[in-house]
Amino acid sequence: MSDTEQTSERGLRADAARNRSLVLDAASRLYAEHGFDVSMADIATAAGVGRTTVLRNFPSRMDLAAALFERSLQAFRALAEEQKGEPGDFIELFDLKLEMYVCNGGLAEAVQKEQSSDSFQTDRREVAEMLLKAAQSAIHAGMMRTGVGVETFIVMQQAMGGAMLSGGTQGEGSERGKTLCGLLLSGLFLID
């Protein structure tokens, strides 16, 4: 392969990756603003790419939702890996998870629609396990109730998803998120 062909192939890959990222960013923004019923054509327009580019990367809305969910999960994993086992780790991870639900209300809707899907169930369990691991220092410090387990954090995620399915604007979702946050944390943490 000549140098020109190699450069052209690398440029195409970079361009395709950029377009994919633009589509994901646009979809995330539109889902947060309008819910999961946004059309693929509207997402293409917002991303500044053609509809075929969207469909080449994401043949269905569920494929797009799954890619957004995976991108959020990667950010969540990265934060969990950075944590050092301190009592505040759980709150930091919990806040990120709640922010993801508030910012991606449409995505939460898609995940709820597909909740029987094995991959979403596996991902939800993985998140619950990371939350439980982050909670260990708060439990050992006597700040959080003992007896919480993976199932506690699976139910917590279901509650977050349910709260975000209530519709409304992103600001209204944020207010519901704050209310839910207070309820969940008061149930988990020991109050003097």
Which characteristics define this entry?
192 residues, mainly alpha, Arc Repressor Mutant, subunit A, Tetracycline Repressor, domain 2, 2 domains, 9 helices, elongated
Account of the 3D structure:
The chain is mainly α and 192 residues long. It is 78% helix and 0% strand. The chain is built from nine helices and no strands. The model is unreliable at 1-9 (pLDDT under 50).
Number of domains: 2
Cα distance spanning the termini: 70 Å
The CATH topology of the largest domain, please?
Tetracycline Repressor, domain 2
Q: Helix and strand string, N-terminal first?
A: HHHHHHHHH
- Class by SSE composition: mainly alpha
> Could you estimate the helical fraction of the residues in percent?
over 70%
Query: How many strand elements?
Result: 0
The backbone outline, from C-alpha atoms, is elongated
H/I helix tally: 9
Q: Any idea of the CATH class of the largest domain? A: Mainly Alpha
